[in-house]
Design brief:
The protein is of the alpha/beta class and about 200 residues long. It is about 50% helix and about 15% strand. The strands form two sheets. Strands 2-3-1-4-7 form a five-stranded parallel beta sheet, with helices on both faces. Strands 5-6 form a two-stranded antiparallel sheet. It is globular. Magnesium ion binds near residues 13, 14, 30 and 32.
Length: about 200
């Protein structure tokens, strides 16, 4: 199954894509994670991406499209995949159409006020797990691997506001785009994590 997770920053794309990946046994491709790995590794792509990500802006379309095209050409993507954070512009969606035939687009619906709270409380582990201080009971270590949790550089309040603006301007038009294609499924992402996940599984069955 070829799935897109669409939604504002902090809507829960990563949280749920990680679980669906295990459920379906298909790769989870997050363009944001790919950029963060490259930033950590100090690669030329990482240096370029950081100059945009730190401002809450989008990395240029052609750079992202090339990365996704190469990733989707790999053997493990032939039976299915989950795209998280791509496409993010109509231009990217048009490019993707030429690369793969998508089965479903899950749109996680969460209002901006809840987003700002969630993102401010988000903590990450190097192993890929995502947490929120609201559920950590004061702990700062990963329950899966014991790693020390950290905050993403682009989760500062000002940057989050820019990311939300960019989302409304550039990415939200994809909701209508995929609705017209008959692929869009709205999921109420403001519920508790388990309820959101149950709704996603219903859509996928
Ligand atoms: P990216 O990493 O994709 O960031 P994003 O879209 O802003 O999304 P987030 O990762 O912030 O949120 P999420 O939806 O994954 O939420 P999460 O599950 O973590 O991109 C980063 C940057 O890279 C972009 O700004 C851009 O510069 C660049 N980039 C990436 N892709 C690009 C592209 N295609 N084109 C151009 N540039 C690109 O959840 C958030 C928090 O909420 C967590 O703490 C979680 O525990 C909590 N939470 C989740 N669900 C619930 C729930 N139901 N109830 C309570 N808490 C919850
Ligand atoms: Mg994410």
């Amino acid at each position: 199954m070829k799935i897109i997770f669409l939604g504002a920053p902090g809507s829960g794309k990563g949280t749920h894509a990680t679980r669906v990946k295990t459920e379906l046994g298909v790769p989870h491709i997050s363009t944001g994670d790919i950029f963060r790995e490259n930033i950590k590794g100090g690669t030329p792509l990482g240096v370029l991406a950081k100059s945009y990500i730190d401002k809450g802006a989008l990395v240029p379309d052609d750079v992202v499209i090339k990365i996704v095209e190469d990733r989707l050409a790999r053997e493990d993507c032939q039976k299915g995949f989950i795209l998280d954070g791509f496409p993010r512009t109509i231009y990217q969606a048009e490019a993707l159409k030429k690369i793969a035939k998508i089965d479903v687009v899950i749109n996680l619906v969460v209002d901006d006020e809840a987003i700002v709270k969630r993102v401010a409380g988000r903590r990450m582990c190097r192993c890929g797990e995502t947490y929120n201080v609201a559920f950590l009971n004061g702990s700062d270590t990963c329950a899966k691997c014991g790693g020390k949790l950290y905050q993403r550089d682009d989760d500062k309040e000002e940057t989050v506001k820019s990311r939300l603006d960019v989302y409304h301007k550039e990415t939200a038009p994809l909701i209508d785009y995929y609705r017209k294609e008959g692929l869009l499924k709205d999921v109420d992402g403001s519920q508790g994590i388990e309820a959101v996940y149950a709704d996603i599984l219903k859509v996928l069955k």
